[in-house]
Design a protein that fits this description.
24 helices; five-stranded mixed sheet; 597 residues
Amino acid sequence: MATAEAPPATPRDAGRRWAWPALAFVLLGGLALRLWGVREGLPFVYNIDEADHFVPHAIGMFRAHTLNPHYFANPPAFTYLLHAVFAVYYGGAHGATHALASDPTSVYTLARVVAALLGTLALWLLYLTGARLFSRAVGLLAAAIEAVAFLPVLYAHLALNDVPTLAPLTLSLLGSAGVLRKGRRRDHLLAGVGLGLACASKYTAGIVLVPYVAALLCRWLQQPSGRRSPWPLLGKLALALLAALAGFLIANPYALLDYSSFHHELVHQSTLSAESQGKLGAPTEGGFLYYLWVLTWGLGWAPALASLAGALAIWRHERHVAWVLVPAPMLFLIFMGTEGRYFGRWLMPILPLLCLLAAFSVVWLATRMLPLGRDEESGPQSALRSRGLVPSLLLSSLLVAGVLVQGLVYSVHSGMVLSRADTRGLTRTWMLAHIPRGAKIVVEPVSPNDWAAEHPGAPDCHAEYRWCKYPSLFYRVGPDGRLLSEFGAKAGVEDYVRTLAPSLLTYYVSHDYCWVVTGSVQRDRAFAAPKSVPLAVAYYRRLARRGTIVYRVTPYGKGQRRVPFNFDWSFDYYPLNYHLPGPVMTVYRLHGGRCGI
C-alpha cells in the first residue's frame, strides 16, 4: 500500500522553522537573565519604591477588604495583578497577609518573578511586532536586543511597574503594526486595549498612542484619493479609543469610582516630576543630555547608534513605517528631558521602539552588503547562495554581536552581582555577632526600619527588636546646628543628610547611642555637594575622629575604584567595579561618656 507523501513545506513554514528555535533561545535566555539573582537582599527590601508601592498596596487591599488601592501616584494595574496572584498562590486574604508578615522573602520573590515573566512576554510581543512590520529576522533581533539590554534586565529583578508595563505597551505596538499593514478591526482593538492597559500600568506609557495614530493616518493615506472618506477613519479611531478607555478602567476602575483621589494624586505626581532636581548629588546637565547618556548604557552604545541609523534609513526606504516608529521616541525624549527630575528607568517606555529601529538598521545593512535576508520567509539558506556561507555568516554574526555584546556582558555581570550577599546584609550579620542585644544604634536610612528587628514588622525599640534604633529621619538640629525638640518634622530619605550636624554626635553619646552605621549612598551625596550641606560634611569628618571603625564592607571588587555617587549607578550596579550589591557600609564605635572604649 502506497503511503502518501507529505506536502512540500511552504516558504512561510520554512521561515517559521528557522525562526522559532531562535526565538525560544532568546526568550529562555532573556528569562534566565531576569531571574538570575531575583532574591537579592531578601528578606529586606532595599529599593525604596519597591518597599513602598506595589506589593504593600496589593497586600493592603486584603487588610482593608476593598479593591480601592487609595493610591494613584503610580497607576494600579500591576498592583491588581499582584493582588490576584497573591490571592491564588496563598489561598486568600489571610494567607497573603500572614505570608508578608512571616515570610516576606516568598512574597517579594513571587512578585519579582511576575515582573520577570511579564518582561519576557514583552520580548515575544516585540518579536511579533518586528515580524509584522519588517521580517522575522528584524523581530528576532529586536527581541534579542531587549532581552540583554541592561535596564529592562535589571528592573525585572524588582517588583516595580517599569518592566511589567513593557508587555501591554508592546501589545499596543503590535496592534499598530497590524493597523499599518492590514488595517483590520481587530488590529485597532489590539492597539487600543494595549494602550489602555499600558497607561493603567505606567502613565508615561501613553506615548504608544503616537505610533497608533501614525499607523492609522498612514493606512488611510495609502488608499486611493477617491476612497479617502474621513468617516471610516474616525470610526476606527473611536473604536480604538473606546478599547483603550475600557482597558484603562478595567485595570484602574477607581480612576472613575474615586475620581477625586485619582485626579489629586495624578496632579501631585505630575507636579513632582516637573520639580527641578533638588536632590543632593543629582545630575545638573539637564534631562535631555542625561537621557542620551542613559541610552549608552541602559540600551548600549551600539544599539543606540544603530537605532539612530535605523531612523535615518527607514525614513528613506520605509516612510510609512518611519512615521510609526520614529516620532514617538523623539517626542518622549523632548518631553521627559524638559521635566525637572530624571532617572534612567523612566526611559524604558521607548526602548521597544529603539530596539526595532536598531534591528532594522542591522538587517538593512546586512542586506545591502550581502544578499543575506533577501528572502526571509524561506529562511536564511537561499539568501546565502551567491557569495557563500562562511563570509555571510561571519559578517552577520559580527553585526549581531555588535548590538548584543555590551548588554549581554553587563546583564550577566548584574546577575552575578545580584546573586551575592548584599553589603547591608553582611553588615547586619556582623552586628548580630558583635553588638549586644538592646544596644542603642544609629543607622542611616540605607535599609528598611525592620532591619534592626528580630523579626520583620516590629516597631522601633519593641521587645522583638534586636536593637533600639535611633529615628534617623526626624530633624534633630536646626540650621545653626542646635538640637531641637526630640519630636521634630520627619525628613525624606533624600533630605536625611540635611538633618546632620556635628552636634548630633554629642547627642548620640549623651543618650547612649554608641554604634553608628553609615552607608555611602548617604555620605557620598553630601560630599558631592559640600557647599549645600556644610554641616553634614562636618558631621562625617567629626564622626571619623570621634569614632573607631569596627567593621567595613565594600561592594567593589579587589583593586576596583569607588564609583562616584550617581542616582543610577550607585543603585543599579552597572559599572564592572561592583562585586557585591549595596553601598559601602561602615560601623563606628563612638568614644566618650558611657560609649568610651
